[in-house]
């Protein structure tokens, strides 16, 4: 029997109304989106689409990357839901028109391939990101349809889906292959949801089930493709990525990098390129949601547990290996050179959302908010115009000349040669309302706390609800039901919260947390108000002793927010600082610092600098100091300098 799957709220029925996340949506509309559109225009990405549509535009010596235009399409559609902007809407409609003009009659839409290698279509799936690009265009176009009702965008998205259905499958004459970078799976499920047409679901099923298969009568597709290309073209990988592919070939292993080393149902441990991994796991979960496939569900559950049990950094990011953006071995979590890509944290967030829909558990929501507040938000500056690709937990600028730290930055970049993260973050910020509340038949599951106005599609009829909170700065959440209905309101109790209480219409009500959620089942009347109060004192956090690089160290958190020390507040060489276990953590609201934040201070010890030989017989002298910590998501918004999350702890009781 197919399990019940919780429903997402459409964005038209869920609007953020206040709090930190709504502030970031405002930043998206006012700063991030205009800046990113300008960058893509200046870089030539939009000109390449115009050229593919048949317009004469100036040639560029370094053409832009239309790969990320799909993500920006999506973010723009969401932004127009957040704020009316006739000029932006006209620009979006113009871009949709250009894409439809550029689209081939069979639905194929890839401006770079169409302009430079039109005869190479689907010949080099291993490294080309070809279907990855098609998937992002599809998702962006579908967002324009879902958010704005643009039929032209839906027509264009269906064309891409029809092209994929025509070219790929197990039928004679079709390609039994799949893209080296999963993403199109998510787009096909979304297209199926918009149209209800089973062929798109079957195409998704093919891509999920075919990936990683091989046998005596059925060679591994990537082996077959490379051999075919060697024989026909003289090189295994075609196009501009062939040199990159040759250099990195030893690190592909047995295709773990591409999530193609085993069939989907046999996957148990997260491995390979972190973004590819999370995107493919999302596709697996989507298929499991629709079909009730328990084998796929078990694989997804095991993969999630693999992340939780040794592969997630304290800031909620994944992918330790900086050389190939990959998931490392469990407990290998070096704070100073883990890759921790922003896109990988977004992928983990999206995977967690799907797991929450499949089997509601507060642990999924805990991980989602950890990734959201401490890596996704850290990925962009407070001005919305500077970005991090990687999100380490320790930065010493003096060491960044080293090859093994070439990916680490002490200052956010204005743009990047591979600008996948900025538009990816933009689209996630735009659709945050989709993730806050999920609905069952007669249940509302509140997973993320933010100012929100929404309408729940319960079986008994629609119910309006409002949420008011300053979370995660404060722990008080007020939820008001605006219509009469009998249903169960379920509120996530984060695992970090030791003390909490629930009030109904001003009176404390007993409630126990089951699988991370407290439940209120009743007949609600208009104006009924539930208030959840979460205690969120500052607390110390310790890594599992198997996390080799983090032994005997502690970090500080407040609620879901991770804290860090910066050189701007604590001076140079943060490595000199020790934190006694007896020191009291004190919080302070600072209105004029970093947009308004709670800082944390504690009495610490710092080794004093003195002249002399490099190595000495005696220990250094120590001085007392006041350690000051700021939320991790705000780091690198002042002058360039050191940053550190974990500090050695002096155990006074030993």
Describe the protein.
This is Glycoside hydrolase family 127 protein. Residues 445-536 form the Non-reducing end beta-L-arabinofuranosidase-like GH127 middle domain. GO terms for molecular function: hydrolase activity. It holds the Pfam family Glyco_hydro127C. Keywords: Hydrolase. There is one protein chain. The chain is α+β, with helices and mostly antiparallel strands. Among the domains are: 440-534, Sandwich (Immunoglobulin-like); 539-650, no CATH class. The chain is 36% helix and 19% strand. It contains 18 helices and 25 strands. The strands form four sheets. It has a seven-stranded antiparallel sheet with strand order 2-8-9-10-16-12-13. A six-stranded mixed sheet has the order 1-6-7-11-15-14. It has a six-stranded mixed β-barrel with strand order 18-19-23-22-20-25. The termini are far apart. The mean pLDDT is 94.
Spell out the key features of this protein.
654 residues; alpha+beta; Immunoglobulin-like; seven-stranded antiparallel β-sheet; six-stranded mixed β-sheet; 18 helices; 36% helix; globular
Report a brief summary of the structure.
Residues 21-431 form the Non-reducing end beta-L-arabinofuranosidase-like GH127 catalytic domain. The protein is α+β, with helices and mostly antiparallel strands.
Distance between the termini: 56 Å
Radius of gyration: 25 Å
| Largest β-sheet summary | 7 strands, antiparallel
Structural class of the helix and strand makeup? alpha+beta
Major sheet strand order: 2-8-9-10-16-12-13
The stretches of 5 or more residues where confidence is low (pLDDT under 50) are: none
Count of DSSP helices?
18
Strand content: 15-25%
Shape, please? globular
Average pLDDT confidence is 94
Number of strands: 25
Helix content: 25-40%
């Amino acid at each position: 029997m197919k399990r019940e799957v919780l429903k997402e709220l459409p964005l038209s029925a869920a609007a953020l109304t206040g709090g930190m996340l709504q502030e970031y949506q405002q930043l998206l509309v006012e700063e991030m989106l205009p800046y990113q559109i300008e960058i893509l225009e200046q870089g030539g990405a939009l000109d390449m689409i115009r050229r593919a549509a048949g317009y004469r535009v100036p040639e560029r010596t370094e053409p832009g990357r239309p790969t990320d235009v799909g993500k920006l399409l999506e973010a723009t559609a969401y932004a127009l839901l957040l704020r009316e902007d006739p000029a932006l809407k006209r620009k979006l409609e113009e871009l949709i028109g250009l894409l439809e003009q550029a689209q081939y009659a069979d639905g194929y839409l890839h401006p770079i391939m169409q302009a430079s290698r039109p005869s190479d279509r689907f010949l080099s799936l291993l490294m080309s990101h070809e279907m990855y690009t098609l998937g992002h265009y599809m998702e962006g176009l579908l967002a324009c349809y879902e958010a704005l009702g643009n039929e032209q965008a839906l027509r264009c998205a269906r064309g891409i889906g029809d092209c994929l259905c025509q070219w790929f499958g197990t039928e004679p004459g079709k390609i039994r292959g799949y893209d080296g970078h999963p993403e199109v799976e998510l787009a096909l499920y979304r297209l199926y949801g918009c149209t209800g047409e089973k062929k798109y679901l079957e195409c998704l099923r093919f891509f999920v089930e075919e990936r990683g298969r091989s046998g005596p009568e059925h060679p591994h597709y990537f082996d077959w493709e490379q051999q075919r290309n060697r024989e026909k073209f003289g090189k295994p990988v075609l196009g501009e990525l062939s040199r990159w592919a040759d250099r990195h070939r030893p690190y592909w292993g047995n295709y773990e990098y591409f999530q193609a080393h085993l069939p989907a149902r046999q996957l148990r441990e997260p491995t390979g390129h972190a973004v590819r991994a999370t995107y493919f796991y999302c596709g697996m979960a989507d298929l499991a949601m629709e079909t009730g496939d328990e084998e796929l569900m078990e694989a997804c559950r095991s993969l999630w547990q693999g992340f939780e049990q040794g592969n997630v950094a304290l800031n909620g990011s994944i992918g330790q290996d900086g050389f190939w953006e990959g998931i490392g071995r469990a407990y290998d979590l070096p704070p100073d050179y883990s890759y921790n890509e922003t896109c990988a944290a977004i992928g983990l967030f999206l995977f967690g959302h799907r797991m929450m829909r499949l089997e509601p558990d507060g642990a999924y929501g805990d991980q989602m908010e950890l990734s959201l507040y401490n890596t996704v938000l850290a990925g962009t500056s407070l001005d919305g115009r500077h970005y991090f690709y990687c999100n380490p937990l320790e930065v010493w600028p003096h060491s960044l000349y080293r090859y093994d730290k070439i990916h680490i930055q002490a200052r956010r970049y204005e743009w990047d040669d591979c600008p996948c993260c900025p538009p990816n973050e933009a689209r996630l910020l735009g659709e945050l309302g989709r993730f806050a509340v999920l609905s069952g038949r007669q249940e509302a599951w509140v997973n993320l706390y933010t100012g929100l106005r929404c309408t729940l599609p319960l079986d008994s009829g629609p119910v309006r609800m409002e949420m008011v909170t300053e979370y995660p700065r404060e722990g008080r959440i007020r939820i008001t039901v605006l219509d009469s209905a009998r249903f169960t309101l379920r509120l996530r109790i984060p695992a970090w919260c030791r003390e909490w209480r629930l009030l109904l219409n001003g009176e404390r009500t007993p409630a126990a947390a089951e699988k991370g959620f407290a439940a209120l089942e009743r007949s609600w009347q208009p104006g009924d108000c539930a208030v959840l109060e979460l205690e969120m004192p500052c607390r110390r956090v310790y890594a599992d002793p198997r996390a080799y690089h983090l032994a005997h160290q502690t970090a500080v958190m407040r609620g879901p927010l991770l804290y860090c020390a910066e050189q701007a507040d604590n001076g140079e060489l943060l490595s000199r600082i020790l934190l006694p276990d007896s020191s009291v953590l004190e919080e302070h609201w600072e209105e004029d610092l970093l947009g308004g934040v709670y800082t944390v201070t504690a009495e610490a010890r710092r080794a004093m600098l003195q002249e002399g030989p490099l190595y000495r017989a005696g220990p250094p002298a120590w001085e007392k100091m006041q350690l000051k910590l700021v939320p991790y998501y705000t780091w690198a918004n002042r002058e360039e300098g050191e940053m550190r999350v974990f500090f050695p702890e002096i155990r006074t009781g030993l």
